[in-house]
Amino acid sequence: MTSSPNIYHRRSAPVAADQYTYYLTWSQEDNEHVGLCAEFPSLSWLDATPEGALRGIREVVAEVVAEMQTSGEAITPSHSHR
Asked: Sorted alphabetically, which SUPFAM superfamilies does this protein's record hold (predicted)?
């Protein structure tokens, strides 16, 4: 697994994307594992394996945060930095 890029808050210390709170659940409707991120409740990733679901949601969060940085938006802090 590759390391995540650093993500910076506007007024706080750097936070790595892997410092967000991730969790997995099973979707009976989709018959797949679902990767979720507590700090970004609108994001999810479906995959046949739990490992794939976790990898997918982490990549999506890293991409969203990078886009937020590029556009100058405030970055959502991880629960551990609140």
From this structure: TTHA1013/TTHA0281-like (SSF143100)
d(CA 42, CA 38): 9
Site of tokens 């990078």: 66
25 within 8 A of 34, measured Cβ to Cβ: yes
Residue range 12-23, pLDDT digits in tens:
444 568 889 999
Residue owning tokens 């910076």: 8
Q: What is the pLDDT of residues 58-72, one digit of tens each?
A: 999 999 999 998 999
**Closest to 10 measured CA to CA, from 63, 76, 56:** 76
